[in-house]
Amino acid sequence: MITVVALGGNALLRRDEPPEATIQESHVREAAALLSEVIASADEGARFVITHGNGPQVGLLALQSLQDERLAPYPLDVLDAESEGMIGYLLERELRNHLPGREVATLLTQVEVEESDPAFQAPSKPIGRVYTADEAARLREQYGWRLAPDGDGLRRVVASPRPRRILGLANVRSLLDAEAVVICAGGGGIPVVYTVQGDDDVPTLRGIEAVIDKDLVSARLAVALEADRLWLLTDVDAVYECFAQPDARAYKCLETRQLETLDFAPGSMGPKVEAAGAFALETGKEAVIGRLEEVALLAAGSVGTRVVRSNDSPRGRSEPSAG
């Protein structure tokens, strides 16, 4: 049995916390302890793949790369790789501490996108911290950033193209066959495009300025690996109708047909619901959305929101089918 576990960025760094190393290490340690308990108690032959978000971290790295005005800032694809390596290292280290004798491997993962994706014309992926109106105005003027409302402030938004294909899946499969816990596709992976240069018509890979949604990549990864379960872990215990309102109601189970009539915030629960629905529709298997702190109960099926394929839904219409 293969389980893909997607750790949300808010599960590793709270919205109101500074992205300092000691704070992130503390949260990673907590996450690793919770996940290790589930991994250690799983049936023999169970395999786990872990992905994670990187919104706060890649935003911090982008800001840091602008500090030396003598140097050109690093492009987002390189910063995506840096954040994937940084968070992956912390997770791998702590998982090894909690799972002595179990192999853990972190992979930098390139994800192919299309240069013509409309997301490049309409940036929507929030990264970095929340700024005041005055701070946002200065950053917009100084760096040409696009910023969008986020709660009481504003955050930088960047292009978030759809993932088309995950590269290096053979390496992931080999590590799973070797019973390793695999950490990959962190922060949605590193966005790359194939282009043809010169007269030889040979496609060449190059990075592109973007941050891919981690949940959509996790669903694509789960489908490509023929995973049995997809867990989307965040800081909310379930998917809610009228979230944060007095009449809020948690969904215990959502069918893929229902998702066509529901609308969730694109910057928070929306991608998770879409990813869960895509996985369920394509595979007929169950995706679950819930709190990281309740992952053991989620594994037992007693908490969270289950997303399942409707009986009348045809298989194969979801986007994350290619690998």
Describe this structure in words.
The protein is an alpha/beta fold and 323 residues long. The protein has 2 domains: 2-124 and 159-308, 3-Layer(aba) Sandwich (Carbamate kinase), CATH 3.40.1160; 125-158, no CATH class. Helix content is 35%, strand content 24%. It is built from 10 helices and 17 strands. It has helices spanning 9-12, 21-41, 55-64, 76-98, 133-143, 169-177, 214-224, 256-259, 269-283, 295-300; strands spanning 2-7, 47-52, 104-106, 110-112, 125-131, 147-150, 153-158, 165-166, 181-183, 190-196, 203-207, 229-234, 239-241, 249-251, 253-255, 286-291, 305-308. The strands form 4 sheets. It has an 8-stranded mixed sheet, with helices on both faces. Strands 8-4-10-11 form a 4-stranded mixed sheet. The protein has a 3-stranded antiparallel sheet with strand order 5-7-6. Helix 2 packs across helix 4 (76-98), helix 3 crosses helix 4 and helix 7 runs parallel beside helix 9. The protein is globular, with a radius of gyration of 19 Å.
